[in-house]
Amino acid sequence: MEYNGTRQFFRNMRNLLRNFRESMVRHGRPTSDRARTQTVVHNFFLHIHSARVHEHSLKWSTTMGLGIMTTLLFLILVVTGILLMFYYKPSVLTAYNSIKDIQYVVPTGRIMRNIHRWSAHGMVVLLIMHMARTFYTAAYKQPREFNWVIGMALLAITLALSFTGYLLPWDQLAFWAVTIGSGIAASPRDLTEALGITQYFDPGGLIKEVLLGAHFVGEEALIRFYTLHVMVLPIALVSVLGVHFWRIRKDGGLVRPASAYPDISPEGAGPEEAPTKTFGLMAVVRERTPATDREIENLVPSWPRVFRLEAILTMLVLLVIVGISLQVDAPLAEQANPAVPENPAKAPWYFLALQELVSYSAFGGGIVIPGIIMVGLLLIPYLEREEEDVGIWFSGARGRRIAAVSAVYAAVVCVAVLAFTVRCGWLRDWLPELTQKYGRITQIVMMFFNPGMVFVAACAVWSIGLLRSTSSTRMASIGLFTCSLVLFIMLTYFAAVHRGPNWGFYWSQAAWPVVEH
Ligand code: HEM
User: Fold this and answer.
1) How far is the C-alpha of 430 from the C-alpha of 420, rounded, in Å?
2) Structural contact between residues 478 and 394, judged by C-beta atoms closer than 8 angstroms
């Protein structure tokens, strides 16, 4: 008995490593399709993928890897963010110096901060491209409508993450950009004041107070932004992202065109597609049964092709981000000084289009127009429900043509309106005389009548024209989406390059006057 026990003990010792491995990994080498499927299903990290994917989903042109690269950048942001948290001190007195320490004293601090900053910018760029990809391949259509809505939530959370992170270095740029941002949040007060009801109903003041914890950007705002940035918003993003990925599987994988579902019945198969193996039920039926050596709908095991592609994308993203971070340092201006306004105080680039519109009227440009755009984007899958040409870029040649013409149209409208405002000014500049004539009404009109409204009207007229001429909601929506995208890009460029002190127009930064503080 004792002898047996000792033998067993030594056998267990000999097999220790193998038993440990088998307790952890419950499948063999992924050499057969069955083992490949088990590899994915039994692995905690891999089983977010389906065990099999459609051949079409693996093509570069289907997704361009944009969603995966966005996810990778988010993961990089989490890792570098945690490292930065070891040194960052969220207080008005210490924040700026702790960032300086990270930049100049902490070993590898500079590269970590650079990677964090450039990944944040990269994530917004890739997110916009991913959104455009899902739109142009009509991936928002049934049954994926709700995943588009979830995507919109991800967009909002990502922008909120960026906005809250912008304040943390507590330098001049951060302080004044967030001061402008909180002014936009408070802009419903323009309307309540024009109506003379602010003392009874002040949503603008309430929003600002909830956001900043005070009437101004200070200690309370910094701690609020910090908590939102490092905890609330990342947890929200991870949770919503989980639903986004889960929905992709529940919606039947990535969108694909009808041509990606070949007819696999023997009658439908062409000579070159004829099955090589069939099972006839001898003497019972005469015909051949469907092919048995081809997967239904061309599904292939995710292992190893999906993971190989993901590994390549990971290396590519890391290479680019680390390369940029070695070359270019994240900006850090002087310490925030509430007494010395930054002029011009520019928001991060992805809010510049908004800031340009806000410069004409805060409520119209900062609340009404973004509200219209967000609601419009949310409704796309519910108002555009044509079933044809799903999964095809631009839904074919006609859509490509419409996208190109719409881009030119939007560019012309944008240049014309901006040139007009630069030359002739806008309502605010003509206001003195108008106010004398019409008083309070002028204030309300000025609030809403923003150049952004001209853009919204121009886009609406264009897409209604397309709807009438093509009788296709898909073509009308391609026109509308393209116009919005082009306007966003052009306004961002205009505000970044041609706006200077006091938000004046300059051909380049070299022409800026020296501003006296
Ligand atoms: C944090 C932001 C986001 C991340 C990390 C993300 C990630 C992903 C990933 C990995 C996929 C699989 C396909 C691919 O790789 O492209 C996907 C699919 C999808 N995403 Fe996102 N996404 C985000 C935001 C958005 C936004 C803003 C939208 C649109 C408003 C959106 C709409 C969709 C749709 C409709 C699909 C299904 C696409 C298809 O069936 O081809 N996502 N997303």
Assistant:
1) 14
2) yes
| Cα 323 from Cα 74, distance rounded (Å) | 18
How far, in Å, is the centroid of ligand 1 from the Cα of 151? 6
Q: How far is CA 94 from the centre of its chain?
A: 32
Query: Does residue 465 lie within any of the structural domains?
Result: yes
**Cα 101 to the chain's mean position, in Å?**
31
The 10s digit of each residue's pLDDT in 169-197 is: 999 999 999 998 898 888 888 888 888 88
**Total domains, the chain:** 2
Residues of the chain with pLDDT > 70: what percent? Answer: 90
| pLDDT, mean over the chain | 89
What pTM does this model have?
0.90
In a domain, 28, yes or no: yes
What is the number of the ligand 1 atom nearest to the C-alpha of 63? 16
Examine the pLDDT at 58 and tell me if it is beyond 60: yes
Is residue 400 a part of any domain in this protein? yes
Residues within a 6 A CB radius of ligand 1: 63, 66-68, 70-71, 74, 127, 130-131, 134, 139-140, 144, 147-148, 151-152, 154-155, 158, 241, 244, 248, 254-255
**Residue whose CA lies nearest to ligand 1 atom number 39:** 254
Nearest alpha carbon, ligand 1 atom 12: 67
- Locate all alpha helices (DSSP H) within 188-333, ordered by sequence: 188-195, 203-212, 219-227, 233-250, 305-327
Q: Cα(131) to centroid of ligand 1, in Å?
A: 7
Going from the C-alpha of 12 to that of each of 4, 21, 408, 433, the distances in angstroms are 12, 13, 74, 94
Residue of 75, 99, 73 lying closest to 87 (CA atoms)? 99
Rounded Cα distance, 251 and 61, in Å: 20
DSSP state of 54: E
Distance 313 CA to ligand 1 centre (A): 16
In a domain, residue 504? The reply is yes
What residues pair up with 52 in beta bridges, in sequence order? 301
Point out the ligand 1 atom lying closest to the alpha carbon of residue 149.
Answer: 30
Nearest CA to ligand 1 atom 17: 67
Would you say residue 439 has pLDDT above 70? no
Q: Which domain holds residue 514?
A: 358-517
Distance from C-alpha of 147 to C-alpha of 140, rounded to nearest angstrom? 7
CA of 168 to the centre of ligand 1 (A): 29
Q: 428: Cβ–Cβ under 8 A, 6 or more apart, which residues? A: 360, 361, 446
